[in-house]
C-alpha cells in the first residue's frame, strides 16, 4: 500500500517541480538534453505533446562549462539582424566571454520542439553563471539532478596514499643504473636487424639486453639504447 494518498500523488504529478543542475565541468549538450526532458515534462506519466506540463529547471555554474577537443575555437555561432551586412559569427570562446549564460541557453533552445510552447518552456529555465541563487528560487528547489559526466580529480587533489597505491604501468629500464636492475657491471649489448626500429622492436631490444664482453660491430650498447627508444637516432 502506498504511503501517499491518491490526492497527494495526483498533486505531486500535476505540480511543477524545481530541479537543480550543476553545469560545472559538464558538456553543454548533455546539460541541454537533461533540461529539455524536464522542461517538456517527458518524465511525467501525464505527458502529451500538446499539453504544457513541464517543470522548472535551475542551472548553476554555467560559467564553468567544458567543451571537448578544440570546440572553444572551432564551434561558431551565427546570427543575422535582417538588415544588409547584419550577418555575424563568433566563436564559442568569444560568446562565452561576453555572456556566460548564452551557450547553455542556446543549447537548450535548440533541443526544444519548434512550436508555440517553446517560448513558454524557456521561461521556466533559470540559468546562473555562478552557484549563488536567490532565496526565493532556493526555497522552491525540490531535487538536484546528478551530473551527466563525472568530474575527474586534479593531481593536487590526490592524497599521498592514493599516489603510492596507483599501479605502475611501466618501469624506466633504459635510464636506470645497472646495479638497480640486477645486471652485471659489464657492458650489455643487443643487435638490431633490419631498418628503422619499430615499437615492437624497441621492446625486444630492452628485453634482449644480454651480457656481452666482446660487442661486435652493429651491436647497440646501453648508451645508444636510450636514443633508439626515443626514435631519434639508430645507433647501428
Automatic annotation (TrEMBL):
This is Large ribosomal subunit protein uL13m. It holds the Pfam family Ribosomal_L13. The keyword Thylakoid does not apply. Keywords: Mitochondrion, Ribonucleoprotein, Ribosomal protein. Its main location: mitochondrion. PROSITE patterns: RIBOSOMAL_L13 (PS00783). GO terms for biological process: negative regulation of translation; translation. The keyword Ribonucleoprotein applies. It comes from Oryzias sinensis (Chinese medaka). GO terms for cellular component: mitochondrial large ribosomal subunit. GO terms for molecular function: mRNA binding; structural constituent of ribosome. It is found in: Mitochondrion. Belongs to the universal ribosomal protein uL13 family.
Amino acid at each position: 500500500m502506498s504511503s501517499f494518498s491518491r490526492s497527494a500523488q495526483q498533486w505531486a504529478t500535476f505540480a511543477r517541480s524545481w530541479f537543480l543542475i550543476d553545469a560545472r565541468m559538464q558538456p553543454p549538450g548533455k546539460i541541454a538534453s537533461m533540461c529539455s526532458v524536464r522542461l517538456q515534462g517527458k518524465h511525467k506519466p501525464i505527458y502529451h505533446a500538446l499539453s504544457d506540463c513541464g517543470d522548472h529547471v535551475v542551472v548553476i555554474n554555467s560559467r564553468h562549462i567544458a567543451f571537448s577537443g578544440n570546440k572553444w575555437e572551432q564551434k561558431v555561432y551565427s546570427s543575422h539582424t535582417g538588415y544588409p551586412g547584419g550577418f555575424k559569427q563568433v566563436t564559442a570562446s568569444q560568446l562565452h566571454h561576453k555572456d556566460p549564460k548564452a551557450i547553455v541557453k542556446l543549447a537548450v533552445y535548440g533541443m526544444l520542439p519548434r512550436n508555440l510552447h517553446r517560448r513558454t518552456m524557456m521561461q521556466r529555465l533559470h540559468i546562473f553563471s555562478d552557484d549563488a541563487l536567490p532565496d526565493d528560487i532556493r526555497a522552491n528547489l525540490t531535487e538536484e539532478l546528478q551530473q551527466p559526466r563525472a568530474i575527474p580529480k586534479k593531481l593536487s587533489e590526490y592524497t599521498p596514499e592514493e599516489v603510492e597505491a596507483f599501479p605502475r604501468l611501466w618501469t624506466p629500464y633504459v635510464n636506470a643504473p645497472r646495479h638497480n636492475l640486477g645486471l652485471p657491471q659489464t657492458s650489455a649489448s643487443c643487435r638490431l636487424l633490419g631498418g628503422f626500429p619499430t615499437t615492437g622492436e624497441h621492446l625486444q631490444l630492452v628485453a634482449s639486453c644480454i651480457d656481452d664482453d666482446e660487442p661486435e660491430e652493429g651491436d647497440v650498447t646501453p648508451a645508444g639504447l636510450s636514443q633508439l627508444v626515443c626514435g631519434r637516432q639508430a645507433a647501428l
